[in-house]
Write a structure and sequence with these properties.
By secondary structure, this protein is α/β, with parallel strands linked by helices. It has 21 helices and 21 strands. It has three domains: about 220 residues, FAD/NAD(P)-binding domain, CATH 3.50.50.60; about 130 residues, Polyamine Oxidase, Chain A, domain 2; about 100 residues, Guanine Nucleotide Dissociation Inhibitor, domain 1. Bound molecules: flavin-adenine dinucleotide. The site of flavin-adenine dinucleotide has 41 residues, from helix 6, strand 15 and helix 21.
Length: about 525
C-alpha cells in the first residue's frame, strides 16, 4: 500500500510538493547541466526526483537505477500545443478532443495507469474484476455514456428488484427497491425539505453557484446547518445528512450548503432540468446508479488511453508549471516539457500540490478550501445470490457502520455485495489492518441482509484515502465561504493554464460525466484561443 504522505490532515511540511529549499542549497551555484531548461526549473526538476522530501532528494542519486537520473533530467525540446496533467477520464477527454482538433498534445500522468478515480481492482483470492472507484452511469450522463458506446463498453442494469434495507440506529426496515424511498414517518418529514431543494434547483445557475441571489446566505452555512434550519425531526435530519454524505463521503457539517445545492442542481444535462433532481441523483432505475459497466467502468479510460498511448507519459508526477512568457514549462519526474497551453485535469484539492510560477493566489485560496471526501469500497463475493433468494435487492442505506450504503454488484457473472465505507468511518479505518475492515464490513452486511453474508468466498477492498494521487474521493467539496469568495477561480484560466477535472464541471460535477464534460470544455477553450 502506498505510504500516506500527503493527506490534507498532515503537517504543512508533509504537504509540500517538494523540498525545494534544501534542494536549492544542495545544487546552489554553478550552471544547470541541461542548457535547454531555465536554471530555476532545472533545480525544481531535480527536486522533483523523489517527490517526497528534500532529505530523500539528497539521497536519490545514490539510489537511482542506472539511467534513471538521466531520464528524469530529460528535456523534451518540442513545444506542444497543449500538455494535459492527469490521465483521469477528464484529462483523457481533454487530450482526445485536442488531438481530434489537430493539436499536438502530451499527457503527463503521475501513476503507472490511466483512469484516476475509475479503477478496476482484482479481488484478493480469485482476481475477479471489481470497480474500486466509479462504476454507475445513469440518465442524462450523456457524455460518459457516449464514450462507453464509442469504446464498446456494455452497460448492464443495476439489480433493483425486491426489498431494500433502511437502517436507523439499530432498527432495520424493509422498503420496496422501486421507487426506493422508505416511507418511515421521519423520512416523510424530510419531504418538504426535498421539495424546497427541487424548487431551488429549477433555475439554479448550475456551475456558477456564486451567482445565485441567495449565494452568500447559503455559503455561510454548512449543509447540516441549512437542514437544521428546516426540520427538527431527527430522522429527517439523518436522512438528509446521509443523502449528502452518501453522495460526497463527507459529513454534512464539513461542506457548504451552497456547494450541496449546486451539486444537486447539476445532476442533469442542458436539456432535461427538473423536477426530480434528488431522485435522479440518488436513485437506481432512472437515477445515477442505474447501470454498471460489464468488465468495469475503468474499461472506458483504459481504452481511451490505449487510443492515445503515443501521447501519454506514465509515472510522470508534475511538480511545477512555470509560465514563462507566452508558454509554460512543465516539470515532472519524467522530464521537462513545454507547451503553449496546459490543462490541469484533477481535483482542486490536489491540484495545488503542483507549484505554479508565478504563484496563483486566488486559485491557491480556492484549492485550500476544497477537501476530498474519505471513501473506500468493499466487495464480498458469494457462490450464489442468497439475498435475491430472500427477496432482497442487496441495497441498503442508513446509519450503520462502517458501510452506510450497499448495492449488488456485477463482476464476470459472480455474485457480489458492495458497500461504501464513507467519511468518518473511512477515516477511522484508513490505517486499520485489512482483515479488521473486512470483518467489520461483513458484520454490517450480516445486519442488513442476514448471516449468510459471513459465507463470502472472496473480497476486494480499496481505500482511496491512502492513494497518493487521489487523497480520497469520490469528489472534493468546498467549505463555507469558499465558492462566494473564490468560485470564479475554479474554471477561469490562469494565463495559459486551464482547469479540468470533474469538480470544475457545470453538469454532473463529481461524476464521470462531469469529468468528461470538464475535459472537453477545457479543450474547447484551448482550441478557441489557438485557431
Ligand atoms: C469510490 C468511488 C466511487 C465513485 N462512484 C462513481 C460512480 O458510480 N459514478 C460516477 O460517475 N462517478 C463516481 N465516482 C467519481 C468519479 O470517479 C470521478 O468523478 C471521476 O473519475 C473524476 O475524474 P477526473 O479525471 O476529474 O479526476 P481523477 O480521476 O482524479 O484524475 C486525476 C488524474 O490526475 C493524476 N494526477 C494527480 N496529481 C498529478 C500530478 N501532480 N501530476 C500528474 N498527474 C497527477 C491522478 O493520478 C489521476 O489519474 C466515484 C469515485 C470514487 C472514488
Amino acid at each position: 500500500m502506498p505510504e500516506l504522505v500527503n493527506r490534507p490532515t498532515g503537517s504543512a511540511a508533509g504537504r509540500s510538493p517538494m523540498g525545494r529549499n534544501s534542494t536549492s542549497a544542495r545544487f546552489g551555484g554553478g550552471d544547470s547541466p541541461n542548457s535547454g531548461i531555465p536554471r530555476r526549473l532545472f533545480l525544481r526538476g531535480v527536486a522533483a526526483m523523489s517527490g517526497v522530501a528534500a532529505a530523500m532528494v539528497l539521497a536519490e542519486p545514490a539510489l537511482a537505477a542506472p539511467g534513471e537520473a538521466r531520464r528524469r533530467r530529460e528535456h523534451d525540446p518540442t513545444l506542444y500545443d497543449a500538455i494535459v496533467v492527469g490521465a483521469g477520464i477528464s484529462g483523457l477527454a481533454a487530450a482526445k478532443s485536442l488531438v481530434a482538433a489537430g493539436r499536438t498534445v502530451k499527457v503527463l500522468e503521475a501513476r503507472g495507469r490511466a483512469g484516476g478515480r475509475i479503477h478496476n481492482h482484482p479481488t484478493a483470492r480469485l482476481g475477479l474484476t471489481t470497480d474500486a472507484g466509479a462504476e454507475f452511469i445513469g440518465p442524462t450522463q450523456n457524455r460518459v455514456d457516449a464514450l462507453a458506446r464509442e469504446y464498446g463498453v456494455e452497460q448492464l442494469p443495476t439489480y433493483d428488484d425486491g426489498s431494500s434495507v433502511f437502517w436507523n440506529s439499530g432498527q432495520r426496515r424493509l422498503f420496496a427497491a422501486q421507487p426506493g424511498l422508505p416511507l418511515d414517518g421521519g423520512v416523510i418529514a424530510a419531504l418538504p425539505v426535498v421539495a424546497e431543494i427541487e424548487g431551488i434547483c429549477a433555475g439554479f445557475p448550475v456551475g456558477e453557484p456564486w451567482r445565485h441571489p441567495r449565494a452568500a446566505e447559503w455559503d455561510a452555512l454548512t449543509w447540516r446547518q441549512w437542514v437544521e434550519q428546516r426540520t427538527s425531526v431527527a430522522t429527517a435530519r439523518m436522512v438528509l445528512d446521509l443523502a449528502a454524505s452518501a453522495a460526497l463521503s463527507v459529513k454534512g457539517d464539513q461542506f457548504s450548503a451552497l456547494y450541496m445545492l449546486n451539486y444537486v442542481a447539476s445532476s442533469t444535462d442542458e436539456n432535461t432540468g427538473g423536477p426530480s433532481y434528488v431522485a435522479r441523483l440518488l436513485g437506481t432505475a432512472g437515477g445515477a446508479q442505474e447501470r454498471v459497466c460489464n468488465g468495469g467502468a475503468a474499461l472506458i479510460p483504459l481504452r481511451m488511453a490505449e487510443a492515445l498511448r503515443e501521447h501519454i507519459v506514465f509515472d510522470a508526477p508534475v511538480r511545477a508549471i512555470d509560465q514563462a512568457g507566452d508558454h509554460a514549462v512543465v516539470v515532472s519526474d519524467a522530464g521537462t516539457f513545454s507547451a503553449r497551453r496546459v490543462v490541469v485535469a484533477m481535483s482542486p484539492a490536489i491540484s495545488h500540490r503542483i507549484e505554479y510560477i508565478p504563484a496563483l493566489p486566488e486559485r491557491a485560496a480556492l484549492c485550500a478550501g476544497y477537501t476530498m471526501g474519505r471513501i473506500g469500497k468493499f466487495a464480498a463475493v458469494y457462490e450464489r445470490p442468497w439475498w435475491r433468494e430472500k427477496g432482497l435487492s442487496g441495497q441498503a442505506f442508513g446509519n450503520a457502520t462502517p458501510t452506510d450504503v450497499t448495492f449488488e454488484n456485477y463482476a464476470e457473472g459472480n455474485h457480489i455485495l458492495m458497500g461504501f465505507v464513507s467519511a468518518d468511518e473511512m477515516a477511522r479505518l484508513d490505517g486499520a489492518p485489512e482483515q479488521q475492515v473486512v470483518d467489520e464490513c461483513i458484520d454490517a452486511f450480516a445486519g442488513y441482509f442476514g448471516d449468510e453474508a459471513r459465507e463470502y468466498i472472496d473480497y476486494s477492498l480499496f481505500r482511496w484515502d491512502d492513494e497518493e494521487w487521489s487523497w480520497g474521493g469520490p469528489v472534493a467539496t468546498s467549505a463555507p465561504g469558499v465558492l462566494t469568495t473564490y468560485g470564479h477561480a475554479l474554471r477561469d484560466p490562469a494565463g495559459v493554464v486551464h482547469w479540468a477535472g470533474t469538480e470544475t464541471s457545470d453538469y454532473w460535477t463529481g461524476y464521470m460525466d462531469g469529468a468528461v464534460r470538464a475535459g472537453e470544455r477545457a479543450a474547447a477553450e484551448i482550441v478557441a484561443v489557438s485557431r
